[in-house]
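Here is the promised in-class demo. Please do not try to memorize the tokens; focus on the logic of going from shape to residues.
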């Protein structure tokens, strides 16, 4: 009888793990592939619906594939999303700010912008550490839920001497 309960417990544990993976909202999950491994990002349409919609649109167009991390500051963040690699480019479509009370913490994704609050385009950053001074001033649109150890390996610099690139980024619902 004890053997039966051990087997049943193992089966229930396996089912719980499988259900947790499938419970993730695949339409609002991104797979960001770096040379170091896969980063899983949970999108936050509850905080920034216009930004999430635009990011998914660009992802589905393959816009981000091959783009470098052009600004990577130790203890702060890694920035990407500029097709020119200079920090001055974008997709050509501005998005109005969607500021929230969500704090910038390790693994938070935020939209880069100029001094104008409504100037976000395609550039975004991933936080290496908390950045309370950004709270309420930049749009939070996602959170790394797996693979932060791969983000930590992105080469530092402004710009890095030999910058890392996004290998591929996909909406999880689109992955076969």
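The designed amino acids, position by position:
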């Amino acid at each position: 009888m004890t053997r039966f309960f051990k087997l049943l417990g193992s089966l229930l544990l396996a089912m719980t793990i499988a259900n947790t993976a499938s419970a993730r909202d695949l339409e609002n999950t991104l797979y960001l592939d770096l040379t170091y491994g896969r980063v899983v990002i949970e999108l936050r349409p509850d905080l920034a619906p216009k930004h999430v919609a635009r990011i998914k649109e660009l992802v589905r167009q393959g816009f981000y594939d091959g783009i470098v991390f052009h600004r990577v500051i130790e203890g702060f963040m890694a920035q990407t999303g500029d097709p020119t690699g200079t920090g001055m480019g974008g997709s050509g479509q501005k998005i109005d700010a969607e500021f929230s009370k969500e704090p910038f913490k390790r693994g938070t994704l935020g939209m880069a912008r100029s001094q104008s609050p409504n100037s976000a385009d395609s550039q975004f950053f991933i936080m290496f550490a908390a950045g309370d001074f950004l709270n309420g001033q930049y749009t939070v649109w996602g959170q790394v839920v797996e693979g932060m150890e791969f983000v930590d390996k992105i080469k530092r610099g402004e710009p890095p001497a030999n910058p890392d690139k996004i290998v591929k980024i996909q909406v999880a619902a689109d992955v076969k």
